[in-house]
Amino acid sequence: MSSEPSIFFSDPNERQGSFLRRTFVVGGLTALGGLALTGRLAQLQVIQSQQYATLASNNQFNFRLVPPPRGRILDRNGVVIAGNRPSFRVLVVRDETKDLDQTLDLLGQLLPDTVDRRRSIIREVNAAPRFSPVPVKSDLTWEEFAKVNMYANELPGVMADMNEARFYPFSGSFAHVIGYVAKPNDRDISAIRDRGEKVPELLFNPGFRIGRQGVEKSFDTDLRGEAGGTRVEVDARGRVVAEDAGGSRPAVPGKDVVLTLDADIQNRALEVFGEEAGSCVVMDVRNGDILCMVSAPSFDPNLFVAGVPSSIYRAWADYERRPLTDKAINGVFAPGSTFKPVTGLAALIKGANPDRRIFCNGGFYLGRRFACHATHGSQDMRDAIKNSCNVYFMTLAVEIGPDAIAEVARTMGFGQKFDLGVGNQNAGLVPDREWRRRNPVRGDGRWYPGETPSYGIGQGALTVNALQLAVYTSRLANGRKAVMPRLIKSVGGVERPSSGEVEDLPYDPSLLAILRDGMNRVTDVGGTGFRNSQLGLGAVRMAGKTGTAQARNYGSGSRKGAGRPWAQKDHNLFIAYAPIDNPRYAVSVIVQHGGMGGGTAGAPRAREVMKVALLKDPEIRQRLEQDGFAETEDPGSHEAGALGAAEPTGDVATDVGLPVPPEGEPPQ
């Protein structure tokens, strides 16, 4: 008997209950989701509407920094010595180019010189922030500028515009003093972060420049100004489609910095050096204002603005005359006979009689012979300064010792750095017995008597720079005040205090008058600087002191420069002040390895620079007119190569055992 399948049906009420439960669950979830969505929409559209409206506007508009015009650097008369000039340039925006390599290929056809810089251009473009224009070439000619604009439609991401570039109108005349500007690098960024400071966004702008040396570096913050910005409308890809002039902010130009320098004096100083190396500093002996501070040879700082080619920089760095070194404040040399008044003053302070006569027979003996350049016979202090007698000052030096000389040297301005507002100064060296104890020779810290004669005539371990020589000469000429040098006249229209109100020199002015009397005779008939120090300005005369410093030990051979390599020739120095009867300006000149004497290499250059300073002074010109003097020669007409005929001065002690001074110039 077969069985048939049975079908059982649930209770209809049970099926309806199960359906209703599922309906309530799903419906509840749907309702909750709807409420949540409604609440979120309400929050976005009502409560946070302003916040998101701002974010949307920020997505639509970008604010691009605009570098400010850099502040100018002016001379004391308002002449611009570092300013800005208009410059056409071409830029590339990486994110707007379809293919950077292809774009640079096309650009290279228009501007062939960009091909050589292709690798560095790619590196700079890739390192720049998104949508930030990167300069590819600056200082385009009008033809190049027009050509780029003509093909702009075929060069996506490429634009040409006009900006302001740093410009140095006097090229190398002020290069060492004012320095130059260059692009910020990774070291600059790291230095700011190491100080715990926030890196200004402006430093990441590819067209921005910062100061690298001199005034440009020391006053970089003041010269920078405040960045502005351009508000531009962008599309979804970040490309500029319009500019919002109302939302833009103009940049604030940097502050102007006014120096105490005089452009005419500075230019003349560099001119008279010609091919020679050295430095020249001119100071106002009344208030310490520096009118000239030149280092030769120099370099063109304009080349650093866009980036100096490595081949040119390497040539500068390798050149033995070191154009990149500021010899006025960083290069140090033995002062030679220009230092003899210091020894004389130290002796006067110790009670020496300036009228005492010391006999010069051509040599000084202290265990061995130290030579003088001539046989001067009987000399008092004034005559010894006039004739630059080694025997006289060696005798005084041995009698008073090195410590007395060192004390006076430091008081007169040697062995120290001055607050000029610029760094990179070399303090030089003023040795004494304590210094020798700290710096023994082969373990021997004694100061030997044989070192003192050389010290007394400005040789040995003693080193100075041209600025210190000018300060020393100014204090001698002033006679009463320890004048301090001043380079910065004002910043942003705010006058920097003059250094005129300074301490008195701790010496009887009558003692300094004795030294000035001797220096007056140096440029008189028979003096070591007579022939090449005559100003030709009637009664307005110049007093000075010649100096020659050995660069090596010549043994028993001749120290004349003829036929010797440049690096083996003597250094030539000259210090001076004028007018003699009422000192107003002091000048120091160092001719590195000039191979002649201070009277033949330094004096004629000092004469030419001093003439410009005097003739630019209204009071001096009035005096000349009252005296009935009419200048018959243009003070700027002298050629650097014909500044004076050779005149032997022999300011150096030549002896086999004479210590050789340091070369004096730090390696570049």
TrEMBL record:
Species this protein is from: Brevundimonas kwangchunensis
Superkingdom: Bacteria
Keywords, comma-separated and alphabetical: Carboxypeptidase, Cell inner membrane, Cell membrane, Cell shape, Cell wall biogenesis/degradation, Hydrolase, Membrane, Peptidoglycan synthesis, Protease, Transmembrane, Transmembrane helix
Region (Disordered): 623-668
Membrane topology label: Single-pass membrane protein
Pfam families per record: PBP_dimer, Transpeptidase
Gene name of this polypeptide: mrdA
Subcellular location: Cell membrane; Membrane
Protein name per its UniProtKB record: Penicillin-binding protein 2
Penicillin-binding protein transpeptidase domain ranges (all copies): 278-611
Compositional bias segments (type: Pro residues): 659-668
Annotated Penicillin-binding protein dimerisation domain residues: 66-243
InterPro entries recorded: Beta-lactam/transpept (IPR050515), Beta-lactam/transpept-like (IPR012338), PBP_dimer (IPR005311), PBP_dimer_sf (IPR036138), PCN-bd_Tpept (IPR001460), Penicillin-binding_protein_2 (IPR017790)
